[in-house]
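> example.struct
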C-alpha cells in the first residue's frame, strides 16, 4: 500500500482517536453496519491530513472531485473526509453530487423526443444541469461568513428535485468543496473507431449509436469547463465492470433502508432493474476504469472484498 509522506503513524493514531466517535456516529447515520477500522486509519485519516497540510488556507475554496464507477464508495468517502476536516481539523468542508444536478424530467423528455428516447434516462453526460453546479460553486466561493447557500437535492425514487425549500443549506464559505461524480474528469471518447453495441441495452435500444454518441459529444461541452476547475482529482478504482454492477445493487439495497415513505419504497429498483440501469453507463465506465487512473492525483484501489488501499499519491 502506498502511504502519504505526511501521514506519520503517531499523527494518524492521534487524529483517529479524536475523530473516531464522530465518524462512528456518521456511519450509523449512513446505515453502515460494518465500518472498518483500517478504512478510517489507512484511507480517511491520511487523506484528510493531506488535504489539511497541502492545501493552505485561502479565500477561494478548493474544488476536489471524487470519481469512480457507480457504487465504488466515493460519496461515502467524501462524507467521512468532510466530517473529519470540518469537525476535527477545523477546515470547513461541504460537498455535493453530480446526482443532485440532474436536468428535470421535462428537459429530459424534450431530449428524448428530439434526439433519442434513451436521453430521458438520467445519469449519462447530457442529462445534468451543469450550470446548476457552476452557479453553486460561484455562490459558495463568494459567500461571506453569514451567507446561507441552498444545496441542490435530488430524490432518485421520485426522479425529481426536492422542493427548494427542503434543500439543505450551507452557512458561510467552506475551505473545501467536494464533488462526487461517477464520470468526474472523463474526457470524450474518439469516434474514429467507435465500437458497436456493447451490451444488451445498446443492442436493443441504440444499435446505431445515436444516443451513445450524443452523450459522448455532450461530455465534450460544459462538463469539461466544470472538470477543469478541479484542484485535485481522486479516483476509487474498482476491479471490473461486473463489480460496478454488484456495487450498484448494494447501493440500491442501502437506499431501501433509508426510505420510509411506502410510496417511495415501491420505486426502489429490483436487481434486474439495477443491472439494466447500469448498462446505460457501461461504455463510459470502461474508459473511466482504464484511463482516469493515469491522470488522477490520488487513486484508491478497491478489491472484490471491498477492501481499500491507496495505490497512487500526488
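> example.seq
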Amino acid at each position: 500500500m502506498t502511504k502519504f509522506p505526511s501521514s506519520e503513524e503517531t499523527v494518524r493514531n492521534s487524529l483517529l482517536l479524536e475523530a473516531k466517535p464522530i465518524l462512528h456516529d456518521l456511519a450509523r447515520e449512513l446505515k453502515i453496519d460494518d465500518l472498518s477500522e483500517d478504512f478510517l486509519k489507512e484511507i480517511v485519516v491520511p487523506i484528510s491530513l493531506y488535504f489539511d497540510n497541502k492545501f493552505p488556507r485561502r479565500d477561494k475554496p478548493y474544488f476536489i472531485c471524487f470519481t469512480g464507477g457507480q457504487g465504488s464508495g466515493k460519496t461515502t468517502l467524501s462524507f467521512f473526509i468532510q466530517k473529519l476536516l470540518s469537525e476535527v481539523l477545523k477546515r470547513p468542508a461541504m460537498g455535493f453530487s453530480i446526482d443532485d444536478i440532474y436536468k428535470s424530467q421535462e428537459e429530459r423528455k424534450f431530449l428524448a423526443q428530439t434526439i433519442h428516447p434513451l436521453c430521458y434516462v438520467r445519469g449519462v453526460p447530457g442529462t445534468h444541469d451543469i450550470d446548476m453546479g457552476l452557479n453553486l460553486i460561484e455562490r459558495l466561493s463568494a459567500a461571506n461568513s453569514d451567507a446561507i447557500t441552498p444545496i441542490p437535492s435530488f430524490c432518485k425514487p421520485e426522479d425529481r428535485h426536492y422542493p427548494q425549500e427542503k434543500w439543505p443549506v450551507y452557512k458561510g464559505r467552506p475551505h473545501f468543496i467536494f464533488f462526487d461524480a461517477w464520470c468526474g474528469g472523463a474526457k470524450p471518447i474518439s469516434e474514429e473507431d467507435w465500437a458497436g453495441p456493447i451490451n444488451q441495452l445498446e443492442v436493443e435500444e441504440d444499435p446505431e449509436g445515436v444516443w451513445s454518441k450524443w452523450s459522448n459529444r455532450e461530455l465534450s461541452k460544459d462538463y469539461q469547463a466544470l472538470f477543469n476547475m478541479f484542484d485535485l482529482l481522486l479516483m476509487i478504482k474498482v476491479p471490473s465492470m461486473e463489480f460496478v454492477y454488484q456495487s450498484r445493487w448494494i447501493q440500491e439495497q442501502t437506499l431501501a433502508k433509508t426510505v420510509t415513505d411506502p410510496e417511495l419504497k415501491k420505486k426502489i429498483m429490483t436487481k434486474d432493474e439495477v443491472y439494466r440501469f447500469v448498462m446505460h453507463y457501461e461504455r463510459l465506465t470502461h474508459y473511466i476504469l482504464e484511463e482516469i487512473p493515469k491522470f488522477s492525483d490520488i487513486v484508491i484501489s478497491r478489491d472484490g472484498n471491498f477492501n481499500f488501499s491507496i495505490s497512487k499519491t500526488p
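> remarks
The domain at 62-184+195-304 is CATH 3.40.50.300 (Rossmann fold).
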